[in-house]
Amino acid sequence: MAFSRVRKLDARSRGILFRKAVVMLCSLLAPLILLHLLAERCASPSPVRGSPRTKRLVSEWSAGSDPAGRAVAGGALARARAGAMVWQLPGESPAPPAPPDLVASPRFAGKVSPLGEGSKKLPQALIIGVKKGGTRALLEFLRVHPDIRAVGAEPHFFDRNYDYGLEWYRDLMPKTLEGQITMEKTPSYFVTREAPARISAMSRDTKLIVVVRDPVTRAISDYTQTLSKKPDIPSFESLTFKNRTTGLIDTSWSAVQIGIYAKHLDNWLQYFPMDQILFVSGERLISDPAGELGRVQDFLGLKRIITDKHFYFNQTKGFPCLKKAEGSSKPHCLGKTKGRTHPNIDPEVVQRLRDFYRPFNMKFYQMTGRFFGWDN
Ligand SMILES: Nc1ncnc2c1ncn2[C@@H]1O[C@H](COP(=O)(O)OS(=O)(=O)O)[C@@H](OP(=O)(O)O)[C@H]1O
């Protein structure tokens, strides 16, 4: 009995001793393990937690950008510069790289303040027409110029919104710095009777730009746009004539009316001298955008900054596009409402319209001193 008690006590004390040893060992090892883990965490990059966007931003940042967020070689901007493929459609050749003077655009070299400095001014130049002439393309291309600032939407001030007053109009404008030109485009001005007097009242020095296009194609383009919104309208052929049998053209139909350029121009010449109006060929704006843009920059008294280096021809779109749009590093084509497929029109009707427009076109060539070649 005594022997067994001694043996029991021995076993208990051995157990206590063992537990104490384990506790001591643990308290010695724990800080060591903790130190080791911390050291490892500092040595290797931490996994990025959060949304895919956060992960992308962090990886772009670590791929190369300075602390201010400007990407350096290998970073977001560098990839975007080389990233014409973002816009590429299957089977399409990639957009050529943007010209270096675009990459280091003066726009981002302090001319336009990211802090929104400058003041809103009334436009010094307007794209007044014509509807479906290529006015959006011209404005988008001009906006690449660091000395041009323009409203994206059509203000329709001198036709629909005149009663709101000039202060309302000015307020729509973007802020500009000294030497920059404020612009807007509203193609309906060209055919608005009151527009020349109203624009002249704002400033007699306003420079006017009119993009003109073969009036027959323009009429079909106009009709195509209406058809896309109202598929139930009568055919182009039936809308063209007052009386199809006599072949009398319905000149009150706006699609026909707008193309009588010489008549509308007469109205403008009551208020503006010819040298204050520039006519841009809608056809050449497609076949040689840089050439037409050169003329526009000269007319606006600007340095020829927009050149053929800024454009590439997008085979799928079938139109010239910008290698880099304003304020962006990506290639940019106009949207799908620009460059629609036109319906087939009865060739006899097309010929009848050509005959109708010919004398007005001749007059227009004479007035403008430029032969647009619509009657070849
Ligand atoms: N680069 C480029 N990309 C796409 N489209 C171009 C371009 N240049 C000129 N065009 C022609 O512009 C036509 C539309 O003219 P507008 O912009 O003046 O139309 S609108 O009056 O503002 O609705 C549009 O007419 P449709 O082809 O009938 O759609 C185009 O032919």
TrEMBL record:
Q: Which Pfam families match?
A: Sulfotransfer_1
Q: Which GO terms describe its cellular component?
A: Golgi membrane
Localization recorded for this chain is: Endomembrane system; Golgi apparatus membrane
Which keywords appear in this protein's UniProt record, sorted alphabetically? Disulfide bond, Glycoprotein, Golgi apparatus, Membrane, Signal-anchor, Transferase, Transmembrane, Transmembrane helix
Q: Which InterPro entries match?
A: NST/OST, P-loop_NTPase, Sulfotransferase_dom
Q: Which cysteines are joined by disulfide bonds?
A: C321-C333
Q: Name one GO molecular function term.
A: [heparan sulfate]-glucosamine 3-sulfotransferase activity
Which residues are listed as membrane-spanning? 21-39
Annotated residues for binding of 3'-phosphoadenylyl sulfate:
K132, G133, G134, T135, R136, R213, S221, K338, G339, R340, T341, H342
Active site positions: K132
Q: What is its EC number?
A: 2.8.2.-
What is the membrane topology here? Single-pass type II membrane protein
The family note in this entry says:
Belongs to the sulfotransferase 1 family.
Q: What is this protein called?
A: Sulfotransferase
Q: Per the UniProt entry, what species is this protein from, by scientific name?
A: Fundulus heteroclitus
